Amino acid sequence: MATPSIDELLAGIRRLPLDERRRLIERAWREADEDTPKPPVVGQSSAPSLLGLMADEPDVVDQMCTLAYEARNGALMRSFDE
Fold first, then answer.
1. How far apart are the C-alpha atoms of 13 and 25, rounded to whole Å?
2. How many C-alpha atoms does 81 have within 13 Å on its Cβ side?
3. pLDDT at position 77
4. CA–CA gap between residue 48 and residue 24 (Å, rounded)
5. Per-residue pLDDT averaged across 3-24, rounded?
6. Distance of CA 48 to the CA centre of its chain
7. Which of 20, 36, 77, 81 stands the most exposed, by the fewest C-beta atoms within 10 Å?
8. Which whole-number Å values give the CA distances from 76 to 35, 60, 64, 82, in the listed order?
9. For 27-73, how does the pLDDT look when each residue is reduced to its tens digit (9 = 90+)?
């Protein structure tokens, strides 16, 4: 048996009563959503954290934080009032 074309599938779906068409579309949507790969949740990654990688170098972490704060304070920020 040959696989029906998309046009044949759509024609069959259009012959269904409206409520059944909506249920079919919602079911297909849910199944596609379940089958779609999802990125890992932040904080539950198996990758090591940047701070964890530098645990033996607290001075480097302090220097990085200091540089980041200085860069942020020196950045020209746009005002929301404009």
1. 9
2. 0
3. 60
4. 43
5. 94
6. 20
7. 81
8. 44, 26, 20, 14
9. 999 999 998 888 776 655 566 677 677 778 888 888 888 888 888 88
Give the three-state DSSP class for 60: helix
* Contact (CB, 8 A) for 74 and 68: no
Q: At what angle do helices 18-35 and 6-14 cross, to 10 degrees?
A: 140
Distance CA 27, CA 14 (A): 16
First to last CA, the chain: 66
Identify the helix (H) or strand (E) that includes residue 4: none
pTM: 0.42
d(CA 63, CA 56): 14
